[in-house]
What does this fold into?
Amino acid sequence: QSALTQPASVSGSPGQSITISCTGTTSDVGGYNYVSWYQQHPGKAPKLMIYDVANRPSGVSTRFSGSKSGNTASLTISGLQAEDEADYYCSSYTDSNTSVFGTGTKVTVL
Amino acid sequence: QVQLVESGGGVVQPGRSLRLSCAASGFSFSSYGMHWVRQAPGKGLEWVAVVSYDGSNKYFEDSVKGRFAISRDNSRNTLYLQLNNLRVEDTAVYYCAKDTRGLVTAFDVWGQGTMVTVSS
It folds into this structure.
């Protein structure tokens, strides 16, 4: 199973909005609504930010939103804040009853 | 509170074995699928394996099939990963994670990770 494709880096100024893409195939992202997104700060465990494409767990800021079109899922962070600087990973269920992560995106707040 | 605590990591020679444990607390462990996810130094996340809530279904990432085994003891609220025939490329932090509700949906609780170093 090949990793989902994400941009290596995305940057934005405080207050701006950024979008991270996550491209897979019909065997994973395009075939199921089990896409999730994770935030990871250096030296820390990942944190679930979005599940089932667009749902936010309790406690996650409404500035984070998710969507999907075809084989590509997206995470949008609005009103960018310094604390949002981290690595972000998408993940999807696959038709082999497994999971696959994206390549990861480093978000920099300018 | 909901918590996962991994243990069992260490330094091991190529070809040797290691068993990781993940102790769960604060939730109904026997009701959820459980995963292992790893992260090589400076690299991204890689899903490794999943076991269903009752241990009857298990799935693995291709590179570990036949070498790693996942199991659980619901009476002890503990998840295990048996790592056999270890390779240098298995060097990583290994995280256990709880599935949100099913077998492979999302990972809503993570442990702090345990480091496995495979080196001669």
Remarks:
- The mean pLDDT of chain B is 97.
